[in-house]
Specification:
- The complex is a heterodimer of chains A (263) and B (222).
- Helix content of chain A is 41%, strand content 24%.
- Chain A is α/β, with parallel strands linked by helices and 263 residues long.
- Chain B is mainly α.
- Chain B has helices at residues 9-20, 23-48, 53-67, 71-86, 92-117, 121-129, 134-164, 176-187, 190-221.
- In chain B, helix 2 runs antiparallel to helix 3 and helix 6 (121-129) packs antiparallel against helix 7 (134-164).
- The chains are: A alpha/beta (263), B mainly alpha (222).
- The interface between A and B is medium-sized, with 25 and 18 residues.
């Protein structure tokens, strides 16, 4: 319907040089075409929230950005490094991953390591920091997400909300240029969602570039610079949150929003 | 008919010094065999989940062959069969260690494969997403967790292999059973001697069980 309009908006929003650029990305799961000619750019400091029904391809989209999902055609540029189709990215894949942090729906903390070691593992093994340097960073980040008194515990001893805040600190310890969030609050009990969103809000205020997949529409409206609606492996519509939530142009967007905003 | 046979405790105790000469062989074959078998098991277990069929296939063949044939046949093949092929004798101790290593290696391959595959996919993704390389992710994230889950199954295999060494009396290794047979040939005290041999095996396997349960309990916390 208005593909050209969407692209223009995207370019306006992304300003000068994007830190992430997906160009003509296609991905198939067997016969399922889960990403269809995806074009998407994210500017430095921009917060992009991706919404859509489950199975729409929104998680797959952000998982392609750090190469957790291979794709079959197109290209993805992240901070000047290029990811290529069919796992042909070579060394740039690990280079991208050291620059891009990710928070998962299921937290994925390392259960055999203490909270502090969860945070320090990558700085020590990837950045070559000493334990002392890494511990200093971990203590600072854990304090920032409000977990400093639990640093010697193990992940299973923490609540879900606390675990997800540790996961955030763990990703931040690598000083990423971009943060990906894959439904970060979907596995949490309702009373713990707020504390995780608060930690993310702080990150937004610090100017972090973020791509967030979430069902928290209130949060999306509040923090997003741009909301992207995905359906059937395609970007159907995107724009500033006020416009997308209040005056969605595409009927699929309208249908989706009327379903999720009703309750 | 009248039974007036009594268990002769003195005879049992008297046999002990002679039997204990076999203990070092039993322990040596068990632990050397299991140590080598563990290395084999890690290599082939990881090959079985390797990226290409040319890596997976040899591991599948190895596991099926050495899991699907009896240890007794394996050791007889190595001790009596292989020398014809190699043109020189193989000593019984080496044959015994090799048989335990190859046999336990096949089972441990499956334990390793199962342990590694039991770790949730998200663990690998988290490691990679932090910029760890695939080998680093395996070394620091997957393997420590997999190893912990493998401990009970490894303990079982250890106990099975320790008991399997009793078969090697047939090729003349002077382990516990062989020592017992030699002693009985002179004293005719089969009841007491086999009872003592059983006790000695039990002492070894119970020590292993105890050590492993301590390790597991420590692992759960630490």
């Amino acid at each position: 319907m208005n593909d050209s309009v969407n692209r223009e908006e995207a370019d306006q929003a992304s300003g000068t040089s994007p830190i992430v650029r997906l160009a003509g990305v296609n991905k198939h799961f067997g016969r399922l075409h889960v990403m269809q000619d995806i074009d998407l750019s994210v500017a430095q400091g921009e917060v992009v929230v991706i919404i859509g029904a489950s199975g729409s391809g929104k998680s797959t989209l952000i998982r392609c950005v750090n190469g957790l999902e291979p794709f079959q055609s197109g290209r993805i540029e992240v901070d000047g490094k290029t990811l290529l189709p069919n796992g042909a990215s070579g060394k740039s894949l690990q280079a991208v991953r050291t620059e891009v942090g990710m928070v998962f729906q299921q937290f994925n903390l390392f259960p055999h390591l203490s909270i502090r070691d969860n945070v320090t593992l990558a700085p020590r093994k990837v950045r070559g920091m000493t334990r002392r340097q890494a511990d200093a960073i971990a203590d600072r980040l854990l304090e920032r997400v409000g977990i400093s008194d639990q640093a010697d515990k193990h992940p299973t001893q923490l609540s879900g909300g606390q675990q997800q805040r540790v996961a955030l600190a763990r990703a931040l310890a690598m000083e990423p240029r971009l943060m990906l969030f894959d439904e970060p609050t979907s596995a949490l009990d309702p009373e713990m969602i707020g504390e995780v969103l608060d930690a993310m809000r702080e990150l937004v205020n610090d100017g972090m570039t973020m791509m967030i997949v979430t069902h928290e529409m209130g949060f999306a409206r509040e923090v997003a610079d741009r909301v992207v609606f995905v359906h059937g492996g395609q970007i159907v519509e995107q724009g500033p949150p006020d416009q997308l939530f209040d005056q969605p142009r595409h009927e699929r967007t309208q249908a989706f929003l009327s379903r999720v905003l009703k309750h | 008919m009248e039974f007036n046979f009594q268990f002769d405790w003195q005879a049992a105790i008297d046999s002990l010094p002679f039997l204990l000469k076999g203990l070092p062989y039993t322990l040596l074959i068990s632990f050397a065999g299991l140590a080598i078998g563990f290395v084999i098991g890690i290599v082939f277990g990881l090959m079985r989940i390797g990226p290409s069929r040319w890596i997976r296939w040899p591991a599948v063949v190895y596991v099926e062959v050495f899991r699907g044939t009896p240890v007794l046949v394996q050791v007889l093949f190595i001790f009596y069969g292989l020398p014809t092929l190699l043109g020189g004798p193989i000593d019984a101790l080496t044959a015994g260690i090799a048989a335990i290593a190859l046999n336990a290696g096949a089972y441990i391959s499956e334990i390793v494969r199962g342990g590694v595959q039991s770790i949730e996919r998200g663990q690998r993704e988290a490691g990679l997403s932090l910029g760890l390389s695939a080998p680093q992710t395996f070394r620091y994230v997957i393997w420590p967790q997999a190893l912990r889950r493998m401990i009970p199954a490894l303990g079982n295999q250890g106990i099975v292999s320790i008991k399997d060494t009793s078969l090697f009396s047939v090729i003349g290794v002077g382990e516990l059973v062989r020592q017992g047979q030699v002693y009985i040939a002179n004293t005719f005290t089969a009841l007491e001697v086999y009872f003592m041999i059983a006790l000695l095996y039990l002492a070894i396997t119970l020590s292993l069980s105890l050590a492993l349960s301590l390790l597991e309990r420590k692992g759960l916390v630490g």
